[in-house]
Design brief:
Blueprint lengths: L3 H15 L9 H14 L4 H18 L5 H23 L4
Helix pairs in contact: 2-3, 2-4, 3-4
Organism: Arthrobacter oryzae
Protein name: DUF6457 domain-containing protein
Pfam family, one: DUF6457
Amino acid sequence: MKSQDETLEDWCRALLQALELEDIEIDVNEVLALAGVAAHSVVRPAAPLTTFIAGYAAGLASGSGQTTDAASMQAAMAVARRLATDYAAAEAPGA
């Protein structure tokens, strides 16, 4: 039986191949960490929305030649992480 990590890696490879994105490297743990921040800082359904929007923004930046794939993903994830954290702080009682 495969571990969860192996299953996620296999799934990402299959999805990337189906989308003809085989040359893209995905840090599964980093994406899951961002999803966790969004889920706990905003609401649970914010997790997939946050990771989708961050990935979309990274793709646009990379596709336009503004930066490399890795740099655009790091930048988009940093913005999303910061925004989710700030959102939680602003929504905290007494904020």
